[in-house]
Amino acid sequence: MSDDEKRTFEEIFKQNENKIHYYIHKLQINDTHKEFYVEGLYAMWMAYKKYQPDKGPLSTYFNYMIKNRMIDLIRSKARDEEKTDAYLKQEQIHQDDGNRFGGSELPIVPPTDITISDQTIWEQVQATLTDNQWKWVYYAIIQEMPQKEIAEAEQVSINTVKSWGREARKKLRASGIYSEP
């Protein structure tokens, strides 16, 4: 039985603890939370448990295990950080929708998020418009239908629907109900 096999892990740890610090320094790791130190300690324990004397010296096996476990932890943390960054970027795009109002940095609120629940406003708008212009407001703004579908539903041309929209916007601007940004 060799001398290494007779010694306890605590004795071997005290002799080789500096190897953990050496690899933390060599790999330029900022270990503020001692995660890498604990990983090095665990690697040393696993090396101690799995050590086979016929394969080589224990210190070489410690070096191999500590270094590779720390590199694995660095890679794992980098992957986690990439996933987090990708998620945050996607969430930011979802929040902002990528559209901005004028020269400001304020995001444009998508029309689907704007709801006018006050029925008196819609009644005021309808009173200002002709029947066809109201159809355009109802279908295009409230129902969010494209012009082609409005034309098919009302059995008119797309140009007619565009004309209803132009006239409706003109009347709403004149009445002060609507103003374009």
Structure, described:
With 181 residues, the protein is mainly α. The chain is built from 8 helices and no strands. 13% of the residues are buried. α2 crosses α4. The protein has 2 domains: 94 residues, no CATH class; 61 residues, Winged helix-like DNA-binding domain superfamily/Winged helix DNA-binding domain (Arc Repressor Mutant, subunit A, Orthogonal Bundle), CATH 1.10.10. Belongs to the sigma-70 factor family. ECF subfamily. Pfam families: Sigma70_r2, Sigma70_r4_2.
- Report on the biggest sheet: none
Q: What count of domains describes the coordinates?
A: 2
Radius of gyration: 35 Å
Strand content: under 5%
**Structural class from helices and strands?**
mainly alpha
Say how many strands there are: 0
Mean pLDDT: 84
Distance between the termini: 86 Å
Helix content: 55-70%
Along the chain, the helix and strand elements come as HHHHHHHH
Backbone shape: rod-shaped
State the helix count.
8
Low-confidence stretches: none
Domain RNA polymerase sigma-70 region: 13-79
Protein name: RNA polymerase sigma factor, sigma-70 family
Family: Belongs to the sigma-70 factor family. ECF subfamily.
Keywords: DNA-binding, Sigma factor, Transcription, Transcription regulation
